[in-house]
Structures are given as structure tokens and as C-alpha cells.
Amino acid sequence: MPVTTGSNDGQQYPRSLRFPHDSGQVPPPLPVVVPARRGSRRWKARALTIALTGILGSACTSPSPPTPPTLEPSRSGSSTAVGGGGSTSLTTEPGMTPVPESSPCVSIVDLAADAVPVRPDAIWPGLGATSFNATRAVSRHRAGCAAPRPPEPDCTVSFPFTVQGVDDVVLAFALDRLVTGEARVTVAASSAGATSEQRIISYRSMRRQAGAAGETALAWLRSAVVRCAGGSPGRLGGMGGLVGSVSSPDSPSGRARSLFVVSGDLAIWVVLDGGAWSPASDRQAVEAAVSRLRSQ
């Protein structure tokens, strides 16, 4: 192939490889291409990934569980539960087991064994296995503490025939103090083939506040005993009062005998339940319960 000399740089090129301007022609303009900014697509993808990660993370993350309360003893002998959703005071008194307060208006404690007013081993020593418990609720007499008294008694529940809790009973019936307890003793069988039975004494002692509120509450209680326990004047265990009976699954007859006694500012409710009772054991139980509850 013939070779000719190009006019640009003195180099020799084949004629077929000459540039267009070597022949005097003006080359057409090249298209202008603006390159995309480096990393723009990568940045958008990364931003989308971060946004989705944040959304999914917030949707799938559950709140951490609350911190359980811990008990911190104090120098006064009481303990306070702290942490969690708030604080609960635990009241401690000599001869008593601390239990959480039901409200800031009423202090409630479980009585220790030596402070329980009615103990079957003290009434009938050596008779059989025994169990007993008692709780004392005391009004704090704070301003603003009050609870409504039901307009009518509820005869489907136990004395004082209201579904209210202990703290509300103290407030609704204008009480200074409420003592609630139960004592049981197992009585051995008296004859061959007979099964042992339990004597059960349950009681409530209600010390009223002085004034019209306490008198009104007492009238309500008397009416409730007549209506729900069939109470009428009589004697049980040698003690006079409103004598009646209440339904009981622990009594062979399905009914337990009851006594409502009023002594000064004190109203006492005693129930003799279970079996193996006699006139002598009735008298021993009622006398012990009433005399000891009067001192509470």
C-alpha cells in the first residue's frame, strides 16, 4: 500500500488512516457528555438503607422491663419497698409481723403468735393440734380519709356483711381499731370408728370512734346481724347478746352459731363453727374471746 506523509506531525500514515482534518475537512463536533457525580447513587442507596434500619429497629425493639422493687431497711424497724412503680411502706410494731399497708389512711399488721388474742391452746391446753391467726387494722385519723357505708348489708358475705376491704370497713364504720382472727383445734374422736373434728372460733372486734358517726355505724351493724344472721336477744356460752347463725361448710349442720355483743364503744362478733362442741366448751370459748378482745 502506498504511503504518504501526513501534514500534521511529519509521520508517515497510510492514506486510509489519515484524520479528516489532514484532508482539510472540519471534523463534526463531538457530543458533550456530562458525567454523573461520583457516589450520588451510592449515597442515595445508603440513605435509604439507614432510614429503613431505623424504622425497623424502632418497631421491633420492646421496652425494657421495670426494675423490681427492693427492700431497704431503716433504723426505725420499718422497711420500704423502692423501685418499680412506686413505694410501699411496711409497718412493724413489737410482737407483730409486717405486712404492706392497704392505704395511707389505715395501718394493717398481722399479729405475732404471742399477741393473738384468742388461742385454742390457751383455752383447751393439750386438747389437740391447733392453728390461729389475727390481724389488727388501726385508723390513722388523717384528713380526707373516708369511705361510704353500703346502704344495705350483703348477706352473701361474712360479717360485717359488706364486700368492702378491711381498710374501707375501718373508715366506713368510723372505727378506731378492727381486730379479725380465727382459731382452730382438732378434737380427737370420742369413740371407735368416729373421725376427729375441728372446733373453729372466728371473731371480729370493732372499737368505734366517739360521736354520731360511731353510733350510726353501730345501728347499721345491729340491723345487719338481725337481717343476715337472724340475730335475736339470747345467750350463747353464757354471754348475752344477739344470737343467730350463719352458713358454714365446716359445720356438720351447715350452720355456725353466732353472737353479737356490744360493750361500751366495742362491738364483738363471735362465731362457733365446726363440730365437737359442748355447753362447757361453748362457755370456755365465748368467755375467752370476749374478755380478751375487750383488752385489744
In brief, what are we looking at here?
This protein is α+β, with helices and mostly antiparallel strands and 296 residues long. It has helices at 40-60, 120-123, 166-172, 212-229, 279-293; strands at residues 3-5, 12-14, 70-73, 79-82, 88-90, 96-98, 106-111, 130-139, 175-187, 197-208, 232-236, 239-247, 255-263, 266-274.
Describe the structure.
With 296 residues, the protein is α+β, with helices and mostly antiparallel strands. The protein has a domain at 88-293: Protein Transport Mog1p, Chain A, CATH 3.40.1000. Helix content is 22%, strand content 31%. It is built from five helices and 14 strands. It has a nine-stranded antiparallel beta sheet with strand order 6-7-8-9-10-14-13-12-11, with helices on both faces. The N and C termini lie far apart (135 Å). Mean pLDDT is 75; it is low at 1-24, 30-45 and 47-101.
Residue runs with pLDDT of under 50 for 5 or more positions: 1-24, 30-45, 47-101
In whole angstroms, how far apart are the ends? 135 Å
What is the subunit organization of this protein?
single chain
CATH class of the domain at 88-293: Alpha Beta
Fold-level CATH name of the domain at 88-293: Protein Transport Mog1p, Chain A
Architecture of the domain at 88-293, CATH level 2?
3-Layer(aba) Sandwich
Sheet with most strands: 9 strands, antiparallel
Total DSSP E strands: 14
Provide the β-strand percentage band.
Answer: 25-35%
Task: Compute the CA-based radius of gyration.
Answer: 45 Å
- Topology as H/E string? EEHEEEEEHEHEEHEEEEH
Estimate the helix proportion, in percent.
10-25%
Shape designation: globular
Strand-pairing-aware structural class: alpha+beta
Spatial strand sequence of the major β-sheet: 6-7-8-9-10-14-13-12-11
